[in-house]
Each structure stands twice: as structure tokens, then as C-alpha cells.
């Protein structure tokens, strides 16, 4: 962030608190949120609010329009932001370049991830990662719904390749995934086992919405070069895989999920039954994605090196 700006040249005519006010302004103007800006600068929202009031009083002009729900720069605020933000960014990048010479990168990284990706990507590396990089703090937010990582102040997110916006850079962090259909033994005591994907239209299926379009997801299958997408119906539409598995375990309906280690354990323990295994398609796995215009910090590069699967970056190549 902007910790480097506390080191002010003694010859400058700008006081440290004035520069701090400008830092606060840039953060709030870019994030369009006092809460996200406070997290970015590791300050409280009240501190930022006080800094902004002081800056506006000193300049004699309103820089931000504030409502109970939104924050946006005024015309004067945009003019100021356009002038000073590039300078702050240049200095920050220069300091980060120096940080690459450190033996141990440091800093905080905020990552947004689906729950299943957390288990597949982060859980296996924690012990090794913090042994090698004890000065890096990971703040991981688990959310199966789509999140605008730029708007919400995340450094990066993890999603399936098909769900990543086209203007993002992406790095592969899991192998391909195999889809599977599960139901509980109790459910199959009431309904016959489906023999073909078309049979699912006679079953109760737990639905979910596509992240990109908001449409109900059609369950996809493939066998012997034939691909089908089945519209399903059921009593529930949910947006997290954990909830979908939970209600399926209760016998409420069938679930379409990844052939993960956790789900295989449910099958081995007799809590779930997998069906249509010969129709299971393989899809590209999870990718770490991040804005292409942002310089990668040493801490972020260390994280990528720890979790990436491919030997090369996949940048806007989807």
C-alpha cells in the first residue's frame, strides 16, 4: 500500500498529515467506499472520514459526494485524482521493485475464492507457504457467488475458467475437474437410479445459477463424443456447493458437483451414491485471476509460485 509515504523528504513544503490526507482521498476515490479504502490502508473508516474532511476544508472544495450507500468523486475530485493517482502509483511500484530484493517478501493479500477451491488450492500449501514466507498474510474470503474483485478491494479471485471476466489475467491453479451427480440412499429408496441424463428430468434436482448470466445452470454430460445439456427442476435453487451437498445428504434431491475428495468420502461412507458416472464430463479447473493493469507485488508473485499448476501464465488467452 502507501506506507512508504510516511518517509517524507525534509525539504518538501508538504506536511506529513497533508500527504496522508491525499493518500486517504486517493484510496476512497478509487475504491468508492470508505470501508474498502480503510481495509486497503489498514486504517479505520472514521480516520479516513476525518482526513477527507480536513482535506476538503483546507482546499475549500468538496472532493467526494457521499450518501448512505455510495461514495463518488465530484468534478473537482476527479480532476485531483487524475493528477495525483499516477504519481502515487509510480512511487508505490518503485518501492515494490525494491521489495523484490528482500529475502522474505511481506504484505497482505486479499483473495476471494469458492469454498471447494479453498480446499483444493490453499489447504494443501498452508504449512509450506508460511514456513517459506512468514511475513505474508493471506486474507481469504470464501464465497461461491460472483464477486467483483476490483470493486470489493481484493487482490485476486479464484473461479472456473469460464466464469472469469475477459479483461483479467489468469493463472491455472488446479487440474481439470470431473463433474458428478450424487444422491442419498434415502432419495434412491424413493426414486429409481437414472440410467441416462434424460432421466434426470423425472427427478428432483438441486439447481444453481450460472455466475456469468444468472440463468439456471443446465447439467452437462458427455459420452463417446456426444455432449448434452439437461435442464433440470427441483425444490431448491442454491448458490453454494456446500449447501447443495448438505441438502442432497438429507435426501431432498440430486446434486451436480465436482468429483472431489470430500464427495468421494461421502460415497465411501455410504452417505451419497454417485450415478451416471459414465456420462461425467471433464471441465477446465480453477484459475487465479487478477487485474492486468496492476503490478504484481513480491508477495503476490510468491503466492502464484506456490499454487500455480501451469508452467506458463495464461494471460487473456481464453
TrEMBL record:
Taxonomic placement: Bacteria, Pseudomonadati, Pseudomonadota, Gammaproteobacteria, Enterobacterales
Keywords: DNA-binding, Transcription, Transcription regulation
Protein name, per record: LysR family transcriptional regulator
PANTHER family associated with the record: HTH-TYPE TRANSCRIPTIONAL REGULATOR, HTH-TYPE TRANSCRIPTIONAL REGULATOR PGRR
HTH lysR-type domain: residues covered: 17-74
Matches recorded under Pfam families: HTH_1, LysR_substrate
MF terms (GO), sorted A to Z: DNA-binding transcription factor activity; sequence-specific DNA binding
Classification via Gene3D superfamilies: 3.40.190.290, Winged helix-like DNA-binding domain superfamily/Winged helix DNA-binding domain (1.10.10.10)
Alphabetical list of InterPro entries matching this protein: LysR-type_TF_proteobact-type, LysR_HTH_N, LysR_subst-bd, WH-like_DNA-bd_sf, WH_DNA-bd_sf
PROSITE patterns in alphabetical order: HTH_LYSR (PS50931)
Statement: the UniProt record of this protein carries the keyword Transcription: yes
Record has Transmembrane helix as a keyword: no
Listed GO biological process terms: DNA-templated transcription
Family, as annotated: Belongs to the LysR transcriptional regulatory family.
Domain of life, source organism: Bacteria
